[in-house]
Amino acid sequence: MRIGIMTSGGDGPGLNAVIRGAVRKGVRVHGAEFTGIRDGWRGLLEDELFDLPTTAVRGISGRGGTILGTSRTHPYSGGGPARMREVMAARGLDAVIAIGGEGTLAGAARLAEEEGLPVVGVPKTIDNDLGGTDYTFGFDTAAAIATESIDRLRTTAESHHRCMVVEVMGRHVGWIALHAGMAAGAHAVLIPEFPVSTEKICEWVRSARDRGRAPIVVVAEGFVPEDRDEAVAVHGIGADGRPRLGGIADEIAPLIEERTGVETRSAVLGHLQRGGSPTAYDRVLSTRLGMAASDLAVEGAWGQMASLHGTDIVRVRMADAVDRLKRVPLSRWEEMQVLLG
């Protein structure tokens, strides 16, 4: 059996560990052969494939990024499923493992269930917004990087008696902000699921200041203040047609300074959260998901993806995982309230 493997959409820590896990188990246990697909769906549509033996995945689980490259090419562009069938037949591919987030897995589910293509998936997003899995790989690393960054910003804020507004990624969910904010002891955490007023933010800042603290505000890039209708996207629209979220910290910081009198600075962490080596947790999770994906491919479980449930790796329908965003629940938000201010 020959299995193609691709990484598609935004990159994230742990992609290389998934590739290694899939190839090692596929070759050693199932006797499969692997083909690397360059730059996601683009490589499959444009026939940019190469052999991927076990020697090619040596020592890569600790490396960030992806050795396969990635892109946001839509699977129904450039000839779509018909072209994919043509390339797969010519290259002798019996299955494809698609590693990606919401967009990638939605496309993979459609290809498997509507077009009959032999595709299985692995969920990837630092935002942790995919249903059907308790956590996605890359999230732990992103939250850890954000936490360390906040710790560093706190020391300079304390030196100058300032308030720091730290913007983290997450798109339309607040998982990174919630976890990093709790881990770093932030005084205010702002997430898209639960809008709060500017006055409430300032109340938290004043409370921290009055106790002699340098107030730390963590805000998710998709946070929408009560007086706005949509998230801030100062960088416009991306090539995939989605708003390039970001800039909310720069809007909030001057408002806090004006209303509280506390000198305030903003810091946008941006792509720092997606780069570099994955944490040990993400390396282990990624490797296990990759190994499970090889099993799915060999068993012909098309339209399924490897998923984390508790501490177990299970399988779920990709279509079920992408039908809605996994948002921060009210219980987690209420749990956070005692720590704010």
Automatic annotation (TrEMBL):
Q: What is its EC number?
A: 2.7.1.11
Q: Where are the residues marked Important for substrate specificity as a site? A: G103
Q: Is Metal-binding among the key words of this record? A: yes
Show the InterPro entries listed in the entry.
ATP_PFK (IPR022953), ATP_PFK_prok-type (IPR012003), Phosphofructokinase_CS (IPR015912), Phosphofructokinase_dom (IPR000023), Phosphofructokinase_III (IPR012829), PKF_sf (IPR035966)
Substrates-to-products reaction catalysed: beta-D-fructose 6-phosphate + ATP = beta-D-fructose 1,6-bisphosphate + ADP + H(+)
Residues reported to bind Mg(2+): E102
Binding residues annotated for ATP, in chain numbering? G10, R72, T73, G101, E102, G103, T104
Give the UniProt keywords, A-Z.
ATP-binding, Cytoplasm, Glycolysis, Kinase, Magnesium, Metal-binding, Nucleotide-binding, Transferase
Necessary cofactors? Mg(2+)
Q: Where does substrate bind?
A: T125, I126, D127, R162, M169, G170, R171, E221, R265, H271, L272, Q273, R274
What does the record give as the active site?
A: D127 (proton acceptor)
Matching entries from Gene3D superfamilies are given as: 3.40.50.450, Phosphofructokinase domain
* Domain of life of the organism encoding this protein: Bacteria
Stored SUPFAM superfamilies: Phosphofructokinase (SSF53784)
Q: Where in the cell is it found?
A: Cytoplasm
Phosphofructokinase domain segment(s)? 2-296
Q: To which pathway does this protein belong?
A: Carbohydrate degradation; glycolysis; D-glyceraldehyde 3-phosphate and glycerone phosphate from D-glucose: step 3/4
PROSITE patterns in UniProt: PHOSPHOFRUCTOKINASE (PS00433)
Q: Does the keyword tRNA processing apply?
A: no
Q: What's this chain's function?
A: Catalyzes the phosphorylation of D-fructose 6-phosphate to fructose 1,6-bisphosphate by ATP, the first committing step of glycolysis.
Q: Which NCBIfam families match?
A: PFK_mixed (TIGR02483), PRK03202.1 (NF002872)
Similarity comment: family membership: Belongs to the phosphofructokinase type A (PFKA) family. Mixed-substrate PFK group III subfamily.
Instruction: Return the protein name.
Output: ATP-dependent 6-phosphofructokinase
* Natural source organism: Brevibacterium salitolerans
